[in-house]
Amino acid sequence: MTSADRPFQFYQICRLTELTGRTAHTVRELRSGLIEAPAACIFYHTHHAFLRAHRFVSDFTNDFARWATEAVQQFRLGERLGGVDLLDYTDLEALRAAFVHILDEDIRENGPRVREAAQDHDFHFVRARTIVYPIDPPVRTVEELAAVVKTVPSDSIFYHFFEARLRPGAQTNDFSHWLFTEAHEPELAMRIERLDPYVLDLEELRGRMLEVLTGGRAA
Amino acid sequence: MIQTVTSPELALADYEPVVGEWPIEEIRRLARALGQVSVQHVNSTAVGGGVAEILVRLVPLMKDAGLNAGWNIIKGGDDFYRVTKAFHNALHGANQPLTSADLAVFERYQTMNRDLVQVWGDYVVVHDPQPLGLIEVRDARSAPGGDGKPAARRLSRSKEAARIVSGTRWIWRCHIDISAPDPHLWAFLAPWIERYDASIFSMPEFARPLAIPQFMITPAIDPLSEKNVELEPAEVQAVLLRHGIDPSRPVLTQISRFDRLKDPLGVIKVYRLVKKRRPDCQLVLAGGGATDDPEGAQVLSEVMEAANDDPDLHVLLLPPFSDREINALQRGSTVILQKSLKEGFGLTVTEALWKGKPVVGGAVGGIRLQILDGVTGFLARSIEGAAERVRRLLGNPALAEELGRRGREHVRSHFLITRNLRNYLLLMLALRGPGKDVIHI
Known about the structure:
The structure holds two protein chains of two kinds.
Chain A: E1 8-24, H1 27-36, H2 39-47, H3 63-70, H4 75-82, H5 92-110, E2 123-139, H6 142-151, H7 154-165, H8 174-181, H9 186-193, H10 202-214
Helix pairs in contact in A: 1-5, 2-5, 3-4, 6-10, 7-10, 8-9
Chain B: E1 3-4, H1 16-19, H2 21-34, E2 38-43, H3 50-64, E3 68-73, H4 78-91, H5 100-116, E4 123-127, H6 135-142, H7 160-163, E5 169-173, H8 183-193, E6 198-201, E7 214-216, H9 233-242, E8 251-255, H10 264-277, E9 282-288, H11 294-307, E10 313-318, H12 323-331, E11 335-338, H13 347-354, E12 359-362, H14 367-370, E13 378-380, H15 383-395, H16 397-414, H17 417-430, E14 438-440
Parallel strand pairs in B: 2-3, 2-4, 4-5, 5-6, 6-7, 8-9, 8-11, 9-10, 11-12, 12-13
Antiparallel strand pairs in B: 1-3
């Protein structure tokens, strides 16, 4: 059991939804809202579904796609917005640009036709204020890391996996970063990095991580 | 002096078996981070209505978490409540004529209550429009030459960060939908609202653009209250039998006021469509408060006429404080309906979901947050659609059970009083770091 240079500290997050007051009634308004909304809104609308117990409520996990499909009945647009591969992005501005690009193309294809949401189904841009605090003692070995991953609240997994990737300059999740730079376990770091959190729910992600960290013994 | 409400003693530890150890530990952790703070809730009534129902449980739980929490009621006469009822309707967008005399009545009571109120909270949470004008207490006392409070309490409106400088934070908790208010009334109320440090709405759809931060906190139910606590099957059965309901046959139930927006006549039509295929089913329409509401009495009369002495259609006019009775009726039901045409949050849906019941609800208001269509229940937009879903649930008990199970978990995660308390704590912490997306504690 090798001890890491610096320990891994688990954090828990609590999120409170904040309304921006900005809404969209048409596809064009969604585009302008997307351009002007704070980056925190982009994160919220593309990620909050992963914190829910019932994430497969619709075909799409991001709110833009869901709104285009369910509220505006623009199925092709919804499918394209839903097809944005979040794993490709470690920068919220690039992610924002990807959605705006799809909307630009769609608006060009559809010309001046106004496509609007059904009554009472406007899009509401919201964001989250996040409170973060440390939990559990810091861990120094892979075995200790696995033991805490097994019991930690799922919101903590979300923080270290999803939020971490989109922190400025981070590029990867906190676990892979620590395994690579502090625990000197590049193979494990790579295998955790290869997990696609966007096709799993948090409990499935926890299970896959444990499989990697314990060599399958925790499966 | 304004009235101080004495709440029952409640212990967070009693909620651990319901929500688990971690959410309770989290509440304690957040409360510790806040430190020795006091939270003063102010509203206009101690009994009746959803706000009082939440505060009577929330305030003692805040105390048990370690906060110095309390609850005050403003004074108002019949003339005040007549005007605030009209305000309520006009804020909902109803065509409600308001005179300058009405506005003067409102202002007179605001002035009176400002003289009576003692602001003692580090956080003052003002619920709904009735006590809105209390905010002037803060500004009056913080102004130069005021009552000597530190000048640091003065309000700067330039930026959010400058807005909350120190001292008391004022929060306006709006429980109603103000998205399309009467414009004249809005022009009258908005200057008060925008002097608060923050506002809370139940859903994004209920809010409107404001110059102050707006947070979303959904209402919640208390799983240990009389309306939601677990009941013995014998008690449930006894309540059904007492009302002439056969527990051995399917029971469809809608619990709501006799109000057109709850569409009780539509529910009867749903029941009739279902009964063509399931002649054994029964319908319970249970609600209260119709006798002192002229329109409610009219709706009740129409419901009775539509019921047409059908022995399987039970219209129950429940007296106040029938929480345990409602609990039993919900638990004794096979399917719960909430076929509202317009709805606030719809706490009767939350109650039904918490009891693990399959629910068919109108696709309006907060029902859409609670019923994830086909996952935690069914949404319906028509009588025919609602009837089809009820028939499906009656014919497929395994589906009904699965939807009910998921509905209960959805409520456990999002709509219990412990979550509500946690969100208030988060809001208070967020107000300490204005403008910050992430706050480390």
